Automatic annotation (TrEMBL):
GO terms for molecular function: protein serine/threonine kinase activity. Keywords: Kinase, Serine/threonine-protein kinase, Transferase. PANTHER family: ANTI-SIGMA-F FACTOR RSBW, ANTI-SIGMA-F FACTOR RSBW-RELATED. This is Histidine kinase/HSP90-like ATPase domain-containing protein. Pfam families: HATPase_c_2 (PF13581). InterPro entries: Anti-sigma-factor_SerPK (IPR050267), HATPase_C_sf (IPR036890), HATPase_dom (IPR003594). Residues 22-123 form the Histidine kinase/HSP90-like ATPase domain. The keyword Transmembrane does not apply.
Length: 136
């Protein structure tokens, strides 16, 4: 059984609460999962929100679900159907690391297309120290 932790869009289509409140909401609702998972969830949410805002025509909705086996699923809808780019690491580049971080911090991530944009999602769960993530 899934439990919705946070939904940042109301019936009128306005993003509520403000994305800046997401960290506070997630910290309160996911505290029992521990700091390691919560830290990764915060970073993944921030990166997906930033990508939607900068590259996806704006954030349309954000959903965070907690599954029965304590996996956290983060979904961010935007308004652009273009797929996110995972760029090769370059020390000289000042940006372009968002999806690399999402891939490294998530167990799995992916993209679902929608009629008016896309949903970029990531699944995170507790893992042994030093374990890496994988992209889809």
């Amino acid at each position: 059984m899934e439990r919705v932790v946070a939904t940042l869009v109301d019936a009128s289509g306005r993003v509520r609460p403000a994305p800046g409140d997401l960290r506070r909401v997630l910290s309160a609702d996911l505290a029992r999962l521990g700091g390691e998972v919560l830290g990764r969830v915060h970073v993944v949410c921030a990166e997906l929100l930033a990508n939607a805002q900068v590259h996806g025509g704006g954030v349309a909705a954000v959903r965070v679900h907690l599954t029965a086996d304590d996996a956290v699923c983060v979904e961010v809808d935007d308004r652009d159907p273009a797929l996110p780019a995972v760029l090769d690491f370059d020390l000289e580049r000042t940006g372009g690391r968002g999806m690399v971080l999402v891939a490294a911090l998530s167990e799995v991530w992916g993209v679902s297309t929608r009629s008016e944009g896309k949903t970029v999602w990531a699944v995170l769960r507790a893992r042994p120290a030093g374990a890496g993530g994988a992209g889809v």
